[in-house]
Amino acid sequence: MLQASQSPWHSGELAIQRSLGVADRMDTLGRTSLRNFLLDQHREFYPLLPFIALGTVDTAGDAWATLRAGRPGFLSSPDTKTLSFDLGRDANDPADIGMNDGDSVGALGIDLSTRRRNRLNGTIRRNGAKGFAIEVVQSFGNCPRYIHNRNPEFTRDADAPATSPPQISSSLDAHARAMIAQADTFFVASYVDAEDGTRQVDVSHRGGRPGFVRIDADGTLTIPDFNGNLFFNTLGNFLVNPKAGLVFVDFSTGDELQLTGDAKVILDSPEIAAFHGAERLWQFKPRRVIFRKEALPLRWSNGGASPPFTEDRRLGDGKKAAGRALSDPDAVAGIDLIKPGPCRCRFSRWRGARLRRAHRRLTPPAACAAPTTSSTRGRCRAVRLEPGIPWNL
Asked: Which of 3, 215, 277, 351 could form a disulfide with 387 if both were Cys (CB 3.0 to 4.6 A apart)?
């Protein structure tokens, strides 16, 4: 039970929240959103999934992210404190080293076909070689923003291992660079060690347009951080502990590219403007690179891009598009609008001239990330059609 004097956030998360002036609001939200158990809707969600993202830490203290697959039902929740896995060990997966009894782990249940996701972290409990459970320490839901729609299909038995051995390197080769350059999605693992000796591991989803991750000549990756729920679990972890693990997936082949290395957060820099829609950046320098061909028994068909990455393709980029839309209400007919709210990313549809009057009813200022004035009569008057560009009505 969290004491009244304790913050629901650790020092790294608090540092970024304070820099944005949202720490008080996030303290209240954190006390209601972060739970030490699984909600019934989450317990019903996990058994529907054909894969799950995991974040672990190996014996050297390096973070790894991975995807593990199984037929729907391989995940189950016998009670509100437990997520069980019918899943064997995989010696070719570097993340498996950090999946022993008593190890701390992060998990992300994500359904790409519905863009729904839930996160948890906890402690692994094993009783035999086949299967394990996560004893839940923290659980919370995430919104669907930046998740590209994809539909999965199994191409081999879920328990059948990949036939190709992993390829291990200390740097990015041409194939790895090409895989990252084409990616519109990856997953990132991070962790912090608390003063009381406990470890909190997190694994998170990142999405953008294909090529949203920049690759420098020395192999450093630069990643834009778009507006989101203001939790700052990943970036907050990096401020305390720069260790990071990334996994890129080729959704057409099932290949996995796993990287471990060190991250650096960039909260204020002119370079941020070079990344469309970014509010801050982070960089990652890999130290170990592992490519696993056909690691996953799944292949995904493309079901469509996430709404935040389709809106400005219809309207054009930047403030010029904002001016056009505001001068011509019909220009935004049928566009998915992102309403500022507790997670700053709820989607809704509004058409034409209804936009101006409808949005005035959306969000009370206490839950809104946008500035308000007395003339708004206590209601939010800002809307976002794309990350980073406020459309004030």
From this structure: 277
Cβ pair 253, 24 in contact under 8 A = no
* pLDDT level of residue 303 (50, 70, 90 thresholds): confident
Q: Residue 125, SS3? A: strand
Q: In what order do the strands lie in the sheet with 51-57?
A: 63-69, 51-57, 104-111, 116-126, 132-142, 82-85, 75-79
SS (H, E, C) 220-278: CEEEEECCCCCCCHHHHHHHHCCEEEEEEEECCCCEEEEEEEEEEEECCCHHHHHCCCC
Q: Report the DSSP beta bridge partners of residue 383.
A: 391
Position 95 scores a pLDDT of 98
Taking the C-alpha atoms of residue 18 and residue 107, their distance in angstroms, rounded to an integer, is: 27
Query: Which of 224, 225, 265 shows the shortest CA–CA distance to 242?
Result: 265
Quick: pLDDT tens for 44-88.
999 999 999 999 999 999 999 999 999 999 999 999 999 999 999
